[in-house]
Specification:
mainly alpha, 0% strand, elongated
């Protein structure tokens, strides 16, 4: 096979080929699923596969550094960014759940399921918005003061705007805007949008939260959430069971 093709992409190519040939060769999909093809693809992935490059998790130190820069004279966008940072970290949110897609123009609430565009009143009361954001205070990590400060700034500038997250120009923040702000806080490109969710999961594990509770908090349907815990597994296990022993 060509070394220029990622082995993970071969399955997609084969599916496209089957789609084109199925009218002429009805058994082509059966051949695609044959043991020989499956084992060949598995061998290619082991032979030429590339390790997954996952982003580094943000830590509470990053959040503390961001909040320290806030002052009485901070701009609305500064307060917005820090509030989004704390909310995404504490609620284990994907960046797409608190930002609008850069290339997607959502005109109505019915056409956009983005958590960033739930109405402020519904999110605050947690009554009818299907993307409610619930962040609990854990030890010294308390996002509520920062979130309330953002709401005060938002209500003063845009009292009739229905969206929760609003920039100083009245638009909903997109991924590009958030990442640009994140680069100011952390220039290292190994930190990105995924770092919010990874950092929140790692922080919960460090606090000794049981794995099944982390899974539920992050709304993961399987144990794949464990890839977000970016610390030494032995240290995390000691932290989790150490906290249980102390509690008992």
């Amino acid at each position: 096979m060509s070394f220029e093709i990622d082995p993970k992409s071969v399955g997609t190519y084969l599916s496209g080929i089957c789609n084109k040939l199925e009218d002429f060769f009805p058994d082509v999909r059966a051949a695609r699923k044959s043991r020989l093809v499956a084992q060949t693809l598995a061998g290619c992935k082991r032979w030429r596969g590339k390790p997954v490059q996952r982003k580094q998790p943000l830590s509470r130190a990053h959040l503390q550094r961001a909040s320290v820069h806030l002052s009485a004279s901070s701009t609305h966008d500064d307060v917005l960014f820090v509030a989004m940072l704390y909310t995404g970290f504490g609620a284990l949110l994907r960046l797409g759940e608190i930002t609008q897609r850069t290339t997607l123009a959502c005109e109505t609430r019915e056409n956009c399921r983005n958590a960033a565009q739930c109405s402020k009143s519904e999110t605050a009361t947690a009554s009818s918005c299907r993307n409610n954001i619930i962040v609990m205070k854990r030890g010294h990590f308390d996002p509520l003061p920062i979130f309330y400060r953002y709401l005060a700034s938002r209500d003063a500038a845009f009292p009739f705007n229905p969206w929760l997250w609003v920039r100083s120009d009245g638009t909903v923040p997109n991924r590009r805007w958030f990442i640009a702000r994140l680069r100011i806080l952390e220039p290292d490109p190994t930190f990105a949008g995924q770092s919010l969710r990874a950092g929140g999961a790692t922080a919960l594990a460090e606090d000794g939260v049981a794995p099944h509770l982390i899974q539920a908090a992050g709304r993961w349907s399987s144990e794949t959430f464990q890839i977000y815990i970016r610390k030494n597994p032995m240290l995390l296990e000691a932290a989790i069971y150490g906290h249980r022993h102390i509690a008992n």
